Amino acid sequence: MSKRVVITGVGVVSPVGTGKEKFWSALTNGVSGIGPVTRFDASDLPTQVAGEVKDFEPTQFLDRKEARRMDRFSQYGVAAAKMAIEDAGFDLDTVDRDRFGVVLGCGIGGMETFEDQAKVMMQKGVGRISPFFVPMMISNMAAGYISMNLNLRGPSETVVTACASATNACGSAFRLIQRGDCKAVLTGGTEASIVRLAFAGFCAMKAMSTLNEEPAKASRPFDRDRSGFVMGEGSGILVFEELEHALARGARIYAEVVGYGSSCDAYHITDPAPNGEGAARAMQAALDDAGLKPEEITYINAHGTATEKNDYFETLAIKSVFGEAANKVAISSTKSMTGHLLGAAGGVELIASALAVHDDIIPPTINLENPGEGCDLDYVPREARKLTVDTAISNTFGFGGHNATMVIRKYRPGE
């Protein structure tokens, strides 16, 4: 019989704040974390805004020497993991560390290190490249550092499926506990790609917003005047825990994880499949896994990138799966405030979904003033909504046609 899985801790590093309280306060108050790019000179690029993390000090979580040998994405991941453990109230000396895993998603990895070391090679020669270059850059290193920092000896893995990475990681963590392989897993994602090279690459694709004059309004999911996504950075890490294990130690439970679905469009390297059919298959698979009907879902945290095709096709996918219930479900894109955290998006957004379930409040889609053509569902525009949130879905879709969906619900003792 499958084990039941619950969320007992969360940790966040995000453009709207570091720590659960800052993050959730910003989202529920509709506060944008988007501003002018400060990490490099973006004046010659068509996009000059981003969701930078502004309040992070790595030495609050790491030894100074160790922090210097870690790329920013690993720093974010370790910090969010430590916050999640603290939030869960874990005394790690009392747990079976051989059955405590780490499964993260990361879409790109140490892009800052890659860019820095490429400059070193071109300007000073190959003899000056850091011996830490490869260990700092590779995408699995955040998960490795978390396992080492916390001495967690269960499975330690990294999933790379572009912007679906963190959700696929959460799905893998869910299965590890369901099967009985682990008692608990730290899962979610981390990303730090706001560097000139990556930025220029997305600009070359014409994928990012060019609404530079008012940065806080640049991310406009489902809006008629959207012009692309805004790049964000950060980390969202959750503690997934076997229900009986959580109950035995008297843990607070944010939500129960009940379903996971994954699919591939098998269509195009960047464009979603026509009518969002791949996304629809992931949502349907997650609902089937959860044993829930569309009309039982209260809230969808949408992928909602503010790109023309994604917003429209995700809307079509929801209509395809939900039928008449599509007009009754509340939907929002928290990317309107955080920007798009790429491989970390699913972790941060599942945290937002879990807090919505726990606190009965749905964060809004800010900047939604005039819905775009075909975007005609309830996207909770501009202001948060108090509502009993029994169940929630979190969607993430990525380049390569990767689609992933998680389903969570209120934990009800006795069920």
TrEMBL record:
<keyword id="KW-0276">Fatty acid metabolism</keyword>
<keyword id="KW-0275">Fatty acid biosynthesis</keyword>
<keyword id="KW-0444">Lipid biosynthesis</keyword>
<dbReference type="GO" id="GO:0004315">
    <property type="term" value="F:3-oxoacyl-[acyl-carrier-protein] synthase activity"/>
</dbReference>
<dbReference type="InterPro" id="IPR017568">
    <property type="entry name" value="3-oxoacyl-ACP_synth-2"/>
</dbReference>
<keyword id="KW-0443">Lipid metabolism</keyword>
<dbReference type="InterPro" id="IPR020841">
    <property type="entry name" value="PKS_Beta-ketoAc_synthase_dom"/>
</dbReference>
<dbReference type="InterPro" id="IPR014031">
    <property type="entry name" value="Ketoacyl_synth_C"/>
</dbReference>
<comment type="function">
    <text>Involved in the type II fatty acid elongation cycle. Catalyzes the elongation of a wide range of acyl-ACP by the addition of two carbons from malonyl-ACP to an acyl acceptor. Can efficiently catalyze the conversion of palmitoleoyl-ACP (cis-hexadec-9-enoyl-ACP) to cis-vaccenoyl-ACP (cis-octadec-11-enoyl-ACP), an essential step in the thermal regulation of fatty acid composition.</text>
</comment>
<comment type="similarity">
    <text>Belongs to the thiolase-like superfamily. Beta-ketoacyl-ACP synthases family.</text>
</comment>
<feature type="active site" description="For beta-ketoacyl synthase activity">
    <location>
        <position position="163"/>
    </location>
</feature>
<dbReference type="GO" id="GO:0006633">
    <property type="term" value="P:fatty acid biosynthetic process"/>
</dbReference>
<dbReference type="InterPro" id="IPR016039">
    <property type="entry name" value="Thiolase-like"/>
</dbReference>
<keyword id="KW-0808">Transferase</keyword>
<dbReference type="InterPro" id="IPR000794">
    <property type="entry name" value="Beta-ketoacyl_synthase"/>
</dbReference>
<dbReference type="InterPro" id="IPR014030">
    <property type="entry name" value="Ketoacyl_synth_N"/>
</dbReference>
<comment type="pathway">
    <text>Lipid metabolism; fatty acid biosynthesis.</text>
</comment>
<feature type="domain" description="Ketosynthase family 3 (KS3)">
    <location>
        <begin position="2"/>
        <end position="410"/>
    </location>
</feature>
<dbReference type="Pfam" id="PF00109">
    <property type="entry name" value="ketoacyl-synt"/>
</dbReference>
<protein>
    <recommendedName>
        <fullName>3-oxoacyl-[acyl-carrier-protein] synthase 2</fullName>
        <ecNumber>2.3.1.179</ecNumber>
    </recommendedName>
</protein>
<dbReference type="GO" id="GO:0005829">
    <property type="term" value="C:cytosol"/>
</dbReference>
<dbReference type="Pfam" id="PF02801">
    <property type="entry name" value="Ketoacyl-synt_C"/>
</dbReference>
<keyword id="KW-0012">Acyltransferase</keyword>
